[in-house]
Amino acid sequence: MNRLWSAGLALALAVGAGGGGVAQVPAQPPADPGPPLSGYPRNALRAPTPAELKTATYVRDVIYGHRDGMALTYDVFKPVRHANGALVVNMVSAGWRSSWAPPEERQARYQALIDKGFTVVALYHSSAPRFQVPDAVSDVRLGMRHIKLHAADYGADPKRIGVWGASAGGHLALVAGVMADDGNPAAANPLERSGNRVAAVVAYFPPTDLAALLQGRPKAGPIAFDDKLYPSVSPIFSVDAGDPPTLMLHGDADKGVPPAQSEAMHVALDKVGVENQLKLYAGADHDFYVKGDPAKTDAYATDAMTAMVAWFESHLKPSSR
């Protein structure tokens, strides 16, 4: 009915303009571009503007370790103005594939945090398909030690560090939150003697119990590891009362990582008294995707990013632990 009404209106306007005009074809709704990358809003997946590029400086390719002779790195985005002294680490991981990109190409994804004065770190791990989930878990735990040890070098307070990621990155954000420790004084690697505890976590549609999620799936790429290791890489089995405040955001129709993964984590955190919230998005599949409705998909992704920034603003204040 609306399309017929629009077409009739266009024809009436054309006739009213002189009778010889051709009726305008009604505007079509925007094509569905498919799921957004890692649940980012469209505006965060574009190239940064020249003005935005002036809002941050970079510390590039910081090496925090090695695996099979290859460097493990992260990039730091330092706000030029109004730095608030807090730091947020983004786990760069999708399907446990950690794809590097120059900071200039990635900055728009972090602009909402940079504009609020947060220092941001893009943390990379040894990537699928060559490496597997246990490798990624080990890498990010090591990387968090390096970041915390050097936070002051980047103008940030090591007691005010948050972690954030989506899907596999969300899993690794929870790993960083609930599998943290104060370091091992007897470790051979000096970096392992440093702690890696954080003050806040945000996880988008995260795997939390890999046995429940992966059993029965073909053993390939990042999940081709021994089933006996599931508990050691599943955040839900490391929950305790000392864990940091945690926000989880999940589509309630997610078929890739069912919302039951976040719901179970929510229950586990509640049980030990850890502050946490779970926000579900109605009708959203993985990546907050609503098939055939790009406007709603983007609205959900934008809302999630707003909630993420607000969580860190609330929990990474100077009084945070």
Tell me what the structure shows.
31% of the residues lie in helices and 17% in strands. The protein is of the alpha/beta class. The chain has one domain: Rossmann fold. Strands 1-2-4-3-5-6-7-8 form an eight-stranded mixed β-sheet, with helices on both faces. β5, α5 (168-178) and β6 (200-204) form a beta-alpha-beta unit. The protein is globular, with a radius of gyration of 22 Å. It starts with a helix and ends in a 6-residue tail after the last helix.
What is the topology?
Blueprint: H1 2-16, H2 50-53, E1 56-67, E2 70-79, E3 87-91, H3 103-114, E4 119-123, H4 133-150, E5 161-166, H5 168-178, E6 200-204, H6 210-214, E7 246-251, H7 260-271, E8 276-281, H8 294-315
Parallel strand pairs: 3-4, 3-5, 5-6, 6-7, 7-8
Antiparallel strand pairs: 1-2, 2-4
Number of helices: 8
Largest sheet: 8 strands, mixed
Dominant shape = globular
How many structural domains does the protein architecture include? 1
The overall pLDDT average reads 92
Strand content range:
15-25%
Question: What's this, in brief?
Answer:
This protein has helices spanning 2-16, 50-53, 103-114, 133-150, 168-178, 210-214, 260-271, 294-315, and strands spanning 56-67, 70-79, 87-91, 119-123, 161-166, 200-204, 246-251, 276-281. Helix content is 31%, strand content 17%.
What distinguishing features does this structure have?
alpha/beta; Rossmann fold; 8-stranded mixed beta sheet; disordered N terminus
